[in-house]
Amino acid sequence: MLFSENDYKFMYSALQEAQKAFDADEVPIGAVIVHENKIISRGFNQTALLKDSTAHAEIIAITSASAHLQNKFLDNCNLYVTVEPCIMCCGAILLSRINTIYFGSFEPKFGASGSLYNILEEAKYNHRPNVYNGIYASESKSLLENYFKTKRQNNNNYPIG
Fold first, then answer.
1. What single-letter DSSP state applies at residue 113?
2. Is 137 helix (H, G, I), strand (E, B) or coil?
3. Are 143 and 28 in contact (CB under 8 A)?
4. Which residues are catalytic, by number?
């Protein structure tokens, strides 16, 4: 599937957020939320920095977007995230009613949008966002692989993945 020029632009912004995470020695995942064709929030993984296992890129971006719009519902918003959302992030996406999710690469160990689970596309919920993948997938995957490769080289006890 071909994506629009704006989709590539917004995913590139998410990749820039992922690079911030990489530079901060965090798992390199980045996200942006777009409303009316404008980025209204950004986030990158900060679980180590904040000592908070819920500080995923998507959660930070959703919190910021809700504050920006002064609304818990993000019906007219799209999320661009470099890596497939996990179960927790899928729950936040459903509860915030984000319209469309674009993600780069699949996450075979924790992914909940097609890898391990497919929570966002189940018909069990009152909200069902559109989900697309593959934008800058190789770049997103490469950032993750480089991060974990470096971690393993620096610490032989560091888990793979």
1. B
2. helix
3. yes
4. 58
d(C-alpha 76, C-alpha 146), whole Å: 35
Q: Which residue has the tokens 């997938």?
A: 137
Q: Long-range contacts of range 93-96, CB-CB < 8 Å, 24 or more positions apart?
A: 93/58, 93/62, 93/120, 93/129, 94/119, 94/120, 94/125, 94/127, 94/129, 96/62, 96/65, 96/66, 96/72
Say how far apart CA 128 and CA 106 lie, in whole Å.
19
What is the residue-level pLDDT of the chain in tens, covering all 161 positions?
A: 689 999 999 999 999 999 999 999 999 999 999 999 999 999 999 999 999 999 999 999 999 999 999 999 999 999 999 999 999 999 999 999 999 999 999 999 999 999 999 999 988 888 899 999 999 999 999 999 999 999 888 875 555 44
The full DSSP string for 10-62 is HHHHHHHHHHHHHHTTS---EEEEEETTEEEEEEE--HHHHT-TT--HHHHHH
Q: CA angle 148-13-104, nearest 5°?
A: 55
